[in-house]
Amino acid sequence: MAELEVEIVAADHHVWAGAAKMVKARTSDGEIGILPGHSPLLAILAEGELAIEPVNGSRLAVTVDGGFFSVDNDRVVIVADNAQLQDGAASNAGIH
């Protein structure tokens, strides 16, 4: 099964990295869902919540204060002004 390689970084810290089945985010143009095989994309990230469905483990929610994200060759890179994993998850959860 195809998967996404996801990396989330904030201005001052690394938030999360790992393999995922899906990433959902709010952009300046509306909400978008990214699955493996998605076309290349560069978008402005709006304030709100990112949803990540890891290959292993339960769904993750990350609160972001804006930034941008890119998608290319099943690699999703999210650079946020500020980002925080919700539900008290450790900031290095899922890092390879």
Short description:
By secondary structure, the protein is an all-beta fold. Helices cover 0% and strands 65% of the residues. It has strands at 4-10, 14-27, 30-34, 41-54, 60-72, 75-80, 83-85.
Please state the second-level CATH architecture: Sandwich
Mass-distribution shape: globular
Radius of gyration: 12 Å
Q: What oligomerization state is this entry in?
A: single chain
Characterize the biggest β-sheet: 5 strands, mixed, barrel
Helix content: under 10%
SSE order, one letter for each helix or strand: EEEEEEE
Would you tell me which CATH topology applies? ATP Synthase, domain 1
Q: Please give the alpha-carbon distance between the first and last residues.
A: 19 Å
Which spans of ≥5 residues are poorly predicted at pLDDT below 50? 90-96
The number of distinct structural domains comes to 1
Mean pLDDT metric:
90
Structural class: mainly beta
CATH class (first level) name: Mainly Beta
User: What spatial order of strands do you see in the largest sheet?
Assistant: 1-2-4-5-6
Give the full name of the CATH homologous superfamily. F0F1 ATP synthase delta/epsilon subunit, N-terminal
Number of discrete helical segments: 0
Strand content: over 45%
Number of strands: 7
